[in-house]
Design a protein that fits this description.
heterodimer; A: mainly alpha; three-stranded mixed beta sheet; three-stranded antiparallel beta sheet; 29 helices; 65% helix; B: mainly alpha; 2 strands; Cullin-like_AB (chain A); isopeptide bond (chain A); ubl conjugation pathway (chain A)
Chain lengths: 738, 236
């Protein structure tokens, strides 16, 4: 039987009844659709769509479907929402949205046949989509403002309780209505929300910054950020978190960054001064997510450390200049204190970097730069390199001022080596260290061989093998020297005729490893001459090709003094011994006679005679009696000298070696600069002046910071020696001459 | 017969009229005599012989002195230096025959009079921008009298600066000379420094020296000079 054609009006009338019923259900009626009703509605649509033209009403039905929604929303839904306010409006919205979804679901089932063919064929939006879009365009696009949502949020910020679940539901609408896109949420809610947030926190920040201390402000900021994050977890969409946090950070931390950090009495500087570790940690936490947020903090950190360091330097400098007796020992003492304090400072701020600042490179760098500034200052005339070397010497030598456990010593040596990294004149340190090491080794003043080796290992690790090669050579030499001495003693026992009549022990040193010493032409006392000769004979049997140069200035001697009261053994330097032995032949000698007979120079002689006649032990009597030695003095053996000890050591004050060390290092630097320039030019062939200088500085920076003028001077020298030439066209360009 | 006591013996060539006369009467004589038309190169040679030290075969310092007085030019006049430059003279105070010949030919001078006349031309030529640096460089080299000598002592450098640059850059030269005399870093000036002085005068505005940059490859002595000058004028 042929289906009867359903006219549009007719069919629609029928549908309309169904729709009306649906609306009643939504409004609260307890009616329901049974499956027969459902089927009928569905079939009506089906039939109207499958009828032959001109009775296929797909398009019209599609339009009417849409109209249904529009009508309902405009006439019923919107007014219902609009007539309420605040929270109540939001509740109504949620309810109506729920209804709407239901309506969409039902109607799209009724009209389902359209989805199957018509929509696909015409590439039209699906029924579901149409339904949602209607709601969106009628509701959202027509000045729905998120104002009341924002009011709720601000209420919560002020501490009031709000209905979080409600807000979540409301915001879910924004998300759902996007149908897969977040544009509705972002444009209609998120953007205004962020702006409102900005305004809110801007207000807060403006008043807090005036009233609160830095720590208090930071605490509040941290709290606010936490609360905002919670807000996201409770009802905002997760995609808002990053933007929200950034907004809050911007208003609270970025805008007022300078005022906050520089706050008088409570800002970053004050926190550092008062060791407020917790507050500093908070500061780090707050600012480290902000791009470049930590830069000002690091700068203040660096300034603070520099100031603290400079204060220590100044204190030491003041102490040094206040000394009335500016003797070497006093200065030495203060420099020990200074280095100790610098080490403590280093430990303290290293802890800050790791505890408060999570080992962030910015803070390591700040600390490094700060230390580099004050660790290179001269104190009391001594360059910092010298102070550090003296400090090491003090720890490593016997009778040094500290009595420390092995562990403590290792620890301190470790820290001292770390400080070396900040000193730019590392080569100067090496030279001072070497000089002092030589004295420790040769006069057997080294406290512990293990420690000596250990610090060399640490220095090698830090500065490279070249730095320590000579020092290691020195230590090795001593070991070999002991073996050599044994062989000498064997030689003597095997050749009793060769025995020189005195006990002689000799250290043979390799010239290249040891600092340079001037050997003066001391007139060796006859008692020693034979000894030297014999040793030379022995040594020649061992190796024919080596030349021995005797350095008497480093020797020591044990003399028996036959005084009236009792014999006393005196431990003296070879030079002192040479002078004293002169008195074996004459009781009285004038200064000039001593000078002629010993062949020593004025500088040495004054010092030596002083130690023997004007110091603690007066072995010689000086005429006239005074505190200083002059060339007109006469000296006489003092037979009445005595001491309660049987064995005394007559010290010889050490000559200040600083000048010589600095000279030697300057000389080495000249060679180093020459070598660097030649090396660079040889490989580059042609190079501009500034580049050459900067590459030179870089290459040499491991050992010292070359003076730009010094580099220029060496370059000129190399030009004069035809290693380089200036380019004819461009005076700033240099060429390597093979 | 030559009258002046310093005059050397009459030249070997036959005609005495070719001997360069110092005063006008003789020049007239020379011009008037057309009997023997000697080649220009012989004239140049004769001129050479007039001043040369016969045992040496070269014009020696004494000869140059005589030449100068004959030309009525000071021995220290820069033009004499320029003459040496034109002759490419190798040894200060001496002119070899080859050098003399080459120079005189280049100057197109075969008589003393012509030589005197060309001196002002020569000055212009040497001071021309394209030649000056070469002349300036020559002036230094000319002072290196000892074998393997690399530098010129301060005193001589000062004199040389005055002669060679004094005309063009008087205030710079005055300051430089003053500085060179008081500084203690250098006892000798080398070629690179010498050339640096010229570059300084040419490129650096004076006396403000505002465009001087010590980070560039100026010789150290000039860096020190600039510092000294700035300190002197109180500004730094």
């Amino acid at each position: 039987m042929e289906r009867k054609v359903i006219e549009l009006d007719q069919g629609w009338d029928y549908m309309q009844k169904g729709i009306t019923k649906l609306k009643r259900i939504l409004e609260g009626s307890v009616e329901q659709f049974n499956s027969e009703e459902y089927m009928m509605l569905y079939t009506t649509i089906y039939n109207m769509c499958t009828q032959k033209p001109p009775h296929d009403y797909s398009q019209q039905l599609y339009d009417k479907y849409k109209d249904s929604f529009e009508e309902y929303i405009s006439s019923t839904v919107l007014p219902a929402i609009r007539e309420k306010h605040d929270e109540f409006m939001l509740r109504e919205l949620v309810k109506r949205w729920g209804n709407h979804k239901l309506m969409v679901r039902w109607l799209s089932r009724f009209f389902h046949y359209l989805d199957r063919y018509f929509i696909a064929r015409r590439s039209l939006p699906a029924l579901n989509e149409v339904g949602l879009t209607c709601f969106r365009s009628l509701f959202f696009r027509q000045n729905f403002d998120t104002f009341c949502i924002l009011i709720q949020i601000d209420k919560e910020r002020e501490g009031e309780q709000i209905d979080k679940a409600l807000l979540k539901n409301v915001l879910d609408i924004f998300v759902e209505i996007g149908m897969g896109q977040m544009d509705c949420y972002e444009q209609d809610f998120e953007a205004p929300m962020l702006e409102d947030t900005g305004v809110y926190y801007s207000h807060k920040a403006s008043s807090w910054i005036l009233d609160d201390s830095c720590p208090a402000y930071m605490l509040k900021s941290e709290e606010c950020l936490k609360k905002e994050r919670d807000r996201v977890a409770h009802y905002l969409h997760s995609s808002s978190e990053a933007k929200l946090v950034e907004k809050v950070q911007h208003e609270l931390l970025v805008n007022f960054s300078t005022q906050l950090l520089e706050k008088e009495n409570s800002g970053c500087r004050a926190l550092l001064r008062d060791d407020k570790v917790d507050d500093l940690s908070r500061m780090y936490r707050l600012y480290h997510k902000i791009p470049k947020g930590l830069d000002p903090v690091a700068t203040i950190f660096k300034q603070h450390i520099t100031a603290e360091g400079m204060l220590l330097v100044q204190q030491a400098e003041d102490a040094a200049s206040n000394q009335v007796i500016l003797s070497f020992e006093f200065l030495f003492f203060d420099s020990q204190v200074l280095i100790r304090k610098v080490i403590e400072l280093h430990d303290k701020y290293l802890a800050y970097v790791s505890d408060c600042f999570q080992n962030h490179t910015l803070f390591h760098k700040a600390m490094k730069e700060a230390f580099e500034i004050f660790c290179n200052k001269t104190v009391g005339g001594s360059p910092s390199a010298e102070l550090l070397a003296t400090f090491c010497d003090n720890i490593l030598k016997k009778g040094g001022s500290e009595k420390l456990s092995d562990e403590a010593i290792e620890d301190i040596l470790e820290k001292v080596v770390k400080l070396l990294a900040y000193i730019s004149d590392k080569d100067l340190f090496a030279e001072f260290y070497r000089k002092k090491l030589a004295r420790r080794l040769l006069f057997e003043r080294s406290a512990n061989e293990e420690h000596e080796k250990s610090i060399l290992t640490k220095l090698k690790q830090q500065c490279g093998g070249q730095f320590t090669s000579k020092m290691e050579g020195m230590v090795t030499d001593l070991t070999l020297a002991k073996d050599n001495q044994n062989e000498f003693e064997n030689y003597l026992s095997n050749n009793p005729n060769a025995h020189p009549g005195i006990d002689l022990s000799v250290n043979v040193l390799t010239t290249g490893f040891w600092p340079s010493y001037k050997s003066s032409d001391l007139n060796l006392p006859s008692e020693m001459v034979r000894g030297v000769q014999v040793f030379k004979e022995f040594y020649d049997t061992k190796s024919k090709h080596r030349k021995l140069t005797w350095i008497y200035s480093l020797g020591s001697c044990q003399l028996i003094g036959n005084f009236e009261a009792k014999k006393i053994e005196m431990v003296v330097s070879t030079y002192q011994a040479a002078i004293l032995l002169l008195f074996n032949t004459s009781d009285r000698l004038s200064y000039s006679e001593i000078m002629t007979q010993s062949n020593l120079g004025h500088e040495d002689l004054v010092r030596l005679l002083h130690s023997l006649s004007c110091a603690k032990y007066k072995i010689l009597i000086k005429e006239p009696i005074s505190k200083t030695v002059s060339p007109n003095d006469i000296f006489e053996f003092n037979p009445k000298f005595t001491d309660r000890m049987r064995r005394i050591k007559i010290p010889l004050p050490v000559v200040d070696e600083r000048k010589k060390v600095v000279e030697d290092v300057d000389k080495d630097r000249r060679y180093a600069i020459d070598a660097a320039i030649v090396r660079i030019m040889k490989s580059r062939k042609v190079l501009g002046h500034q580049q050459l200088v900067s590459e030179c500085v870089e290459q040499l920076s491991r050992m010292f910071k070359p003076d730009i003028k010094a580099i220029k001077k060496r370059m000129e020298d190399l030009i004069a020696r035809d290693y380089l030439e200036r380019d004819k066209e461009n005076a700033n360009l240099f060429r390597y001459l093979a | 017969m030559p009258r002046a006591s310093k005059r050397k013996a009459a030249p070997a060539s036959s005609s005495s009229v070719t001997a360069p006369p110092p005063d006008q009467s003789r020049s007239r004589t020379a011009k008037a005599t057309s009997k023997t038309r000697l080649k220009e190169s012989d004239q140049i040679d004769n001129l050479f012989d007039t001043y040369a030290n016969s045992s040496l075969g070269q014009i020696d310092p004494e000869g140059i002195e005589t030449l100068c007085s004959d030309m009525k030019v000071e021995y220290t006049d820069v033009r004499i230096l320029m003459l040496a430059w034109k002759m490419k003279a190798q040894r200060q105070g001496y002119f070899t025959k080859d050098e003399w010949q080459a120079g005189m030919k280049a100057l197109k001078a075969n008589t003393l009079l012509k030589l005197v006349k060309t001196l002002s031309e020569l000055k212009k030529e040497a001071e021309a921008p394209q030649n000056f640096e070469d002349f300036y460089s020559f002036a230094f080299k000319y002072c290196l009298t000892e074998e393997k000598q690399k530098g010129v002592d301060i005193e001589s450098t000062c004199e040389l600066l005055k002669i060679v640059l004094g005309y063009q850059f008087p205030s710079q030269v005055d300051s430089l000379v003053e500085y060179l005399k008081v500084q203690k870093d250098y006892k000798v000036i080398n070629k690179d420094q010498w050339m640096g002085f010229l570059r300084f005068c040419k490129e650096i505005s004076f006396p403000d020296m505002a465009n001087y940059d010590e980070n560039q490859a100026w010789p150290l002595i000039l860096d020190n000079f600039v510092d000294w000058k700035k300190q002197k004028s109180g500004g730094r």
